[in-house]
Amino acid sequence: MELLTVNQELCVKCGICAEVCPNGIIGMSAEGPQMLYEPACIACGHCTAVCPVAALDNVKAPLSKQVKLDQYPVINTETAYAFLRSRRSIRNYKKDKIAQEKILQLLDIARFAPSGCNSQGLSYVVIENPEKLKKITEATIEWLEKQIETNVEWAKPFAGLAEVYRKTGVDVVLREAPYLIVATVPQEFSLGHDNARFSLEYVELYAAAMGLGTCWAGFVEIAAGAQYKPILEAMEIPDGFAVAGVMMLGYPKHTYQRLVDRNPIKVTWLA
Ligand SMILES: Cc1cc2nc3c(=O)[nH]c(=O)nc-3n(C[C@H](O)[C@H](O)[C@H](O)COP(=O)(O)O)c2cc1C
């Protein structure tokens, strides 16, 4: 079956579909658009979604699954700026449970983040079992201590963190977050880690809009990325899969009152 179908009655032969195609594999002829090289189609759906008259269909990105964009209001720059600038990493959580449907709604947005060649390819593990979460914190500290013992340079400044945990039992790793989202990818999937970054950042932003709080769990990510078995076991990561991103989740305990400043932007213009 051909990937592209053109409705000749509707097609105005404007060529926009060919122009937006990421791989340049749509050519224009007197009959309208033509797929030049099917194997290179990455199913991104740009060609079908951009068509002003809905004349084009693509088996890999069917029109029937697309939603008319005019159903969604475009946010203005002030709202977008305030929203992006007010997002914070949340490190104190209420104990409240989040309904499973709400977590699914949150994770669903991750599907729409950019991914290399539209490869996507992520799966998620959501952990809410308190014993498992404790094990992950404990194993992460254990792993950090091993790095410090063996003189791994980057780990040394974090000796204090491990010490606080050992002395006080305060969860300095997962901040007693009631949920942990773990993004996993097939081990050999080279784009997986970048894809996970963008997908989880979509989750982080959407969480803020949903009244939820998140925080990247960087130490857990590094330890799991180094294949530290106790962490992978606690997360029940199947063989052949790797952890590509980890994020705490819960209802925020506190509300921020002010926006902070950051380092000034550095820009070089090459005219
Ligand atoms: C890759 C990455 C890893 C991070 N790891 C941790 C972490 O392990 N623990 C933590 O409390 N915050 C972590 N953070 C959050 C940063 O500390 C935070 O983004 C930064 O201080 C700016 O604060 P804000 O996110 O509230 O604006 C991480 C952030 C990123 C992007």
Could you write a compact summary of the structure shown?
The chain is α+β, with helices and mostly antiparallel strands and 271 residues long.
Task: Output the keywords.
271 residues; alpha+beta; Alpha-Beta Plaits; NADH Oxidase; 2 domains; 34% helix; elongated; binds flavin mononucleotide
* CATH class annotation of the largest domain: Alpha Beta
Gross morphology is elongated
User: Separation of termini?
Assistant: 48 Å
Spatially, the strands of the biggest sheet line up as 5-6-8-7
> How can the largest sheet be summarized?
4 strands, antiparallel
Order of helices and strands: EHEEHEHHEHHEHEHHE
Notes on the structure:
The structure is a single chain. With 271 residues, the protein is an alpha+beta fold. It folds into 2 domains: 4-67, 2-Layer Sandwich (Alpha-Beta Plaits), CATH 3.30.70; 89-250, NADH Oxidase (3-Layer(aba) Sandwich), CATH 3.40.109.10. 34% of the residues lie in helices and 15% in strands. It is built from 9 helices and 8 strands. The structure holds flavin mononucleotide. The site of flavin mononucleotide (FMN) has 8 residues, from β7 and α8.
